[in-house]
Design brief:
This protein is an alpha/beta fold. The protein has one domain: Rossmann fold (3-Layer(aba) Sandwich). Helices cover about 40% and strands about 25% of the residues. The protein is built from eight helices and ten strands. The strands form two sheets. It has a six-stranded mixed β-sheet, sandwiched between helices. Strands 2-1-4-5 form a four-stranded antiparallel β-sheet, with helices on one face. A hairpin with a 2-residue loop joins strand 9 and strand 10. Helix 3 packs across helix 4. The longest helix has 19 residues. It is globular and about 50 Å long. The N and C termini lie far apart (about 45 Å). The relative contact order is 0.18.
Amino acid sequence: MTNGQLQLKQVSLVTSIKGQVTGAPILTDISFEVFPGDRICLIGPSGAGKSSLLRLLNRLREPNQGEIYLENRDIRRIPILELRRQVMLVAQEPKLLGMTVKEALAYPLLLQHLPQSTINERIETYREQLLIPAEWLERTELQLSLGQRQLVAIARALVAQPKILLLDEPTSALDAGIASRLLSSLTELALQDKMTIVMVNHQLDIAQLFCTRVLYLQNSQLLQDTPANQIDWQQLREQLVQAEAQAAQEWV
């Protein structure tokens, strides 16, 4: 496999509710490959397993069967800290763990025992890349909005320079202008550094502008893996609306 390639093969994940295994699969027989520089959007109705799939990729969840490989290595054989430095996840509602923004940005680099000069340089590079104001650096989590915390959490992941960046609804709390600038910066980084980005996003307008591939999940399965330039986006919107309506009926 080429540098940074990640492969999922026949992954099956079963959920537990109230401590009892229901037997209902979250994901079944998911199989696809991710390549350096890919910008992938995971799309599908609520409950399709998109966030669970993200969590499989850096072992925040474990499959019941099947394998996940990073650069020809089964990720279960990669030390967990090493794996999560290479495959970093930013949650939809990230936490700064009581740190200031500057402390939060420095934290993953301190764990790598990098010199302070390198830490300072990376913080400044990615702060500027994501247009994070310098005055935020001394703010705490309580002084930031959810959208501001999302930006900081993405910067915290980027300073570690992962091979694969996993984003769960990263623009959900951002206004359109900031979201557009963020995705423009992420696109530039993906092209420049061959960093792979896998993103859950319900906003198809954003997905259409950002992604190079779409993985469409529904009913616990991967139904579609299509290059973005080959997608009928209007048809995809209608498909998603219908799937959301069906999912809503199942909860009634």
